[in-house]
Amino acid sequence: MIIEKLRELYCDRRFSMMEVANEFKTTHARVYYWLRKYGISRRSWSDSAYVKQNPNGDPFTIPKKFSNRQQELLKAGLLLYWAEGNKGKDAIRIANLDSRMLILFLEFLREVCLVDEQRIYVYVRVQRNFSLDDARQYWVNILHLPTSRIYVYPHTDKRSKLIQQKSRHGIATLEFHSTKLKQWLDAAMEKYIEKLMNSRKIAHEN
Q1: What share of the chain is helix, strand, coil (3-state, %, to 5)?
Q2: Pairwise CA distance, residues 114 & 198, whole Å
Q3: Which end of the chain is more exposed for a tag (fewer CB within 10 A), N or C?
Q4: What is the DSSP annotation of 154-198?
Q5: pTM (2 d.p.)
């Protein structure tokens, strides 16, 4: 039946309306009519864009149960993101010149969020008098990422003085693009902070 094939293609396999139309050898308008007729909700524009950008599904997996190590990394990742993360709409970003922060946050992404490694990028801003190649190799070695996903560029602001630089390896920004993971991380962070604040309130009351 049409409805069964329609649900398989549009809902389960996440085909676009045009791709569904091609499968049925019909028009986009006819597919739109079927969706309304059979009470199948259309995806929003943002959902459709997400499906197109992620044809193989979400580029991450959150385990249903965490090991002891994952629980520790979860706490560290949430607090690091709360303190140092960029609160943009479409990507998770954290920047710092302290390599330990990026190492821990990357382990959080890898071991707690089980992210697609191909989506991880690092952008490093280096004072123009330091070696870009040395900086790139430094971050390659400590983050265990290929050079193709680490972009290093000089800090060209003339007000930046060599004597003021705390690290010849620059300031690194770790970036992972996923709207859904960003939404999960924002919600998890707020829930964890609320839990900490509530426990603090109870401790003070006692």
Answers
A1: 55, 15, 30
A2: 30
A3: C
A4: EE--TT--GGG-S-TT-EEEEEEE-HHHHHHHHHHHHHHHHHHHH
A5: 0.74
- Of the candidates 146, 167, 157, 153, the one whose C-alpha atom is nearest the C-alpha of residue 101 is 167
Give the torsion sign (CA, 128, 129, 135, 136): positive
Residue 93 dihedral angles phi and psi, to the nearest 5°: -135, 140
Instruction: Show pLDDT as tens, one digit a residue, over the chain (206 residues).
Output: 788 888 888 877 778 888 888 888 888 888 888 888 888 888 776 667 666 776 777 889 999 999 999 999 999 999 999 999 986 777 899 998 899 999 999 999 999 999 999 999 999 999 888 899 999 999 999 999 999 999 999 876 655 555 555 678 999 999 998 888 999 999 999 999 999 888 877 766 76
